[in-house]
Amino acid sequence: MNQSDPDFDPVTLVISEIVKPDRIQEYEAWTRGINHAAREFEGYLGANIIRPRDHAFPEYVTIVKFDNYAHFRTWQVSPICQEWLAKAKDLVDQRVYQRQSYEPEMWFTLSRTATNKPKQPAYYKQVIVGAIAVYPLILLANTLLGPILKGLHPQLALLMSVFFVSALLTYPVMPWLTRTLSFWLYPKR
Hints:
By secondary structure, this protein is of the alpha+beta class. The protein is 49% helix and 20% strand. It folds into two domains: 1-102, 2-Layer Sandwich (Alpha-Beta Plaits), CATH 3.30.70.100; 104-189, no CATH class. The protein has helices spanning 24-39, 69-77, 79-88, 123-149, 154-180, 182-185, and strands at residues 11-19, 44-50, 59-66, 92-101, 111-112, 118-119.
C-alpha cells in the first residue's frame, strides 16, 4: 500500500439536509439507524451531527468519515446505504453532499516528527476542533444570512450558507484554531 496515494487518505463526507419540520423526530431516528448501519462497514471512523439551533429552519449537517476512499465507496454503493437513503427521501426537503479526500494540511498545520514526516493530530481531537469551529460558524451564518436569504429558493440559500461557512472555516478560523490549540493537538512527548 502506497501511503502517499490519495486513495488511502481518509475521506470526509459533509451532508447538509433541510428536514421537513413535521418529520424531525423521524429524521432523528433515521440518523441513529444509518449511523448504526455504517458502523458495520470496514473503515468507518464515525459521524458528527450538527443539529439546528432554529427549528424554523431545520438544517442538519452530518460529517461522516471513512479511513480511505475504497471503504467509503463500498459503503456508499452498498444496498444497505441505498436503502437508508431511500428511507430519508420523504423526511428531507433537500440534501447537499460535499466529499473530499481528507488532507489534514488543509485545516490542520501539521507538526513534524523526528523523521520530518508530517504528524496528524489524533482523530478524536480533529473531530472536536472541527465541531468547535463549525458549530459557531453555522450559527453565525444563520444569524447573518438568514434574513438576507429568506426569500431565496431553499437550495440556493443553503448553497450560499455552505460557501460562507467553508470560506471562513478554511481561512481564518481553522488556521487560527489549530495554532491556538497546538499545545493540545500536538503534545510534546
